[in-house]
Amino acid sequence: MQDVMGLDALTLARMQFAFTVAFHFIFPAFTIGLASYLAVLNGLWLWHKEERYLRLFAYWVKIFAITFAMGVVSGIVMSYQFGTNWSVFSDRAGPVIGPLMAYEVLTAFFLEAGFLGIMLFGRDRVGPGLHMFACVMVAVGTAISATWILSVNSWMQTPQGFVLGENGQFLPADWVEIVFNPSFPYRLAHALTAAYLTTALVVGGVGAWHHLRGRGDNAAVRTMFSMAMWMAAVVAPLQIVIGDMHGLNTLEHQPAKVMAMEGHFQSHPEGAPLILFGLPDQEAQQMRYAVEIPKLSSLILKHDLNAPLAGLDTVPRDEQPPVGIVFWAFRVMVGLGFAMLGLGLWSLWARWRGRLHDSQWLHRAALVMGPTGFVAVTAGWITTEVGRQPWTVYGMLRTADSVAPLAAPAVAASLLAFVVVYFAVFGAGVFYILRLMAHAPMPGEKGAEEEPGPLRAAGHAPGLITEEAQ
Questions:
Q1: Structural domain count, the chain
Q2: Among residues 46, 148, 152, 358, which one has the fewest Cβ atoms lying within 10 Å of its Cβ?
Q3: 40-75: per-residue pLDDT in tens?
Q4: Buried b vs exposed e over 312-322: b needs ≥16 C-beta within 10 Å?
Q5: What pLDDT, in 10s, does the model give residues 378-420?
Q6: Which domain range does residue 51 map to?
Q7: What is the pTM of this model?
Q8: 306 within domain boundaries
Q9: Where is the signal peptide (predicted)?
């Protein structure tokens, strides 16, 4: 089969899926947390009747609408690849993953879509009670959507509850076991907390920007920064604890992935070191220039300094994941996680001293940390998915056996088209979001229904436009 620049169809198909998934994932990672933040803001407005909460709701709901739309579009494009580049996987695993994906649409997506319009445009049309209910339903819908998608992904990581048909298909035998597979609870908790932390960092970064621009006397700016720092201080340590539990679950069910994350090419019968940094050499099966702490990996993974840990020397070469990618992606995720913890603790110290809104160095740090949630969730996704290789369904179906019989030039052409279109269309969307973030929420902040541009037509009835003109 003809290659393109030395890349075969399988490699190009994997690159295309990685690109579209990584691009898509940043939007749900933001909207899951932002939907809950908007529901909280709306609840605080109804409870306290303080204008700053209404102002913040109107400010962030426009950003949510744009981000939600980009997430939907990128998700649709991504799902088409199951039938184009990965038709063999779709045929083999379809009896299991097909119904789960359908449940996500029938429950979560319809719930979000049904109440999204009321949330965006219904405050003065349906009454405060129903509008608040719509805000909660959109937030719940985003969480339910994540639940179904993560159930699918977790089943691919730790498959159970199926039987193999005569044609090699995975046929469901127990839906409870399929949905609640061994890695699902840990993966769901880890992903949801990551989404909430990502949103907190973005909101905190925007608040820090306006503080540094001399807008710290704006009540809405102070409120958004304070709420974001509370969230970071609470969720960052929780995320580290959940991540540790998730890692122990991964060690039990996917030991080769943990070996790659830790960079352990050799087994350690009397305690394994924690390798902080190094250059993995998979060909030579060794870690070059390793900077390590003796026996700490055994303490973390087994809670015993002298506990033995197996290495990749116990795994056949053709079943080892790409160690270099997994090793470094994991360190990016963990390093940023501890930086987030540091930011949360710093904010608590500044709050205790009464300098939360006066510490410019804290504001600079929060601004720098603003986009790091997206980097961390992408690094975590890379760790999870690349660490599963060479399998699509772990231990059962290889990636090389899942790809559609396509020619490399065809896959390369579609990959190039995706790259050009994504950066043009979504780049424009991100640019507009940054412009919205650049101005501080002001008294009388207009919501989505009042904003000029494409959103306006969906938010006004002709009679209301006439009344406003008067």
A1: 1
A2: 358
A3: 999 998 998 888 898 999 899 999 998 888 888 777
A4: beebeeeebbe
A5: 999 999 999 999 999 998 999 989 888 888 888 888 888 888 8
A6: 13-181+407-470
A7: 0.88
A8: no
A9: none
